[in-house]
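Morning F.,

Quick status update on the modeling queue. The single chain you submitted on Monday has been processed. Sequence for confirmation:
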Amino acid sequence: MDHNRFVLGKKPWHGRLAATCGLVALMGVAHSAAAAEPTVDDIKAAEAEFNRGRESYRAGEYVEAAEHFESADGHAPNDKVLELAISARDKAGNQDRAATLAQLGLETYPNSERVKKVAAPLVDKAHAELLQVTISCSEACTILDGTRIVYGVPAERRIVFLTPGDHTIRAGWSDERTLSQNVSGAAGESSSLTFAAPPVPQKEAPLSTSLNTTGADEGAQASSLRVLQPLYVYIGAGATAVLGGVTIWSGIDTVNNPGKDKVRDACLHGTQATCDSLYNQGKNAELRTNLLIGATSLVGAATAVVAIFFTDWSGKKKSDSATIVPWVSYDAGPSVGAMGRF
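Structure tokens below.
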């Protein structure tokens, strides 16, 4: 490619675009007026946007080209790229946006001859044909003309050019803070707006903090319930062991007394009365065993609950004594519980 001259559409283009057609030109941001050094990822993104803008420019799609050039400048600020964005806006007929970009270029790169060459005539023309608005913010803000963002990094002062007529200017800050003001004027007139940034809204405590606080409160409540001495756990464990032993004996007795063979012989060869008596004896023993199994399980579960939630294993004495009496009942089915003073 001839780096001194190439063709955009059917029109020859001298110098300006050719000088920026590559990553080498974008690397010049190290000497620009950017506030921070762009990263490698920023430069790659800027190069990609620049290439898209160049293709759109060649195709005569100037609005799209301007958007790509502005995006490239946003990733890696550079006077050459901003100059192309100004030219693309101008060719697209966006006189207000072209003039605003031109004003930004003159302020950002006051020593750039290439920016002066393309920007100064546009600004001079805008003073006569557009409405000039000087916007001041107490904190660096983003500017919107209606719903359209005015290109540029957040700043405390911006000069924008608008088409004559009525406009709603909005200033935006972090934390979704915005303020709006209306402005109107004719060609060649100027106006000014001042925005005082609203205070940053107070943020609610993070959910994790609330959860931690709740957890601490629940822990304190759980600690206050631990009023029993380990003795009651030992009593419950002993009761469970005794019931378990009785249950084992009952199970063995159910199997052997009277036993399946004895019941079968009585029913096959004996009287009906003997058969019924032995069968009922076996069923009663089976019921007894089932009740003992249930009672053993309930007492064991109650002992575990007392041990986990109500027993103070630290060995510290409580100021108020607590008593608990476990109980087991077989009325209307097996049940277990505890009563006492906590």
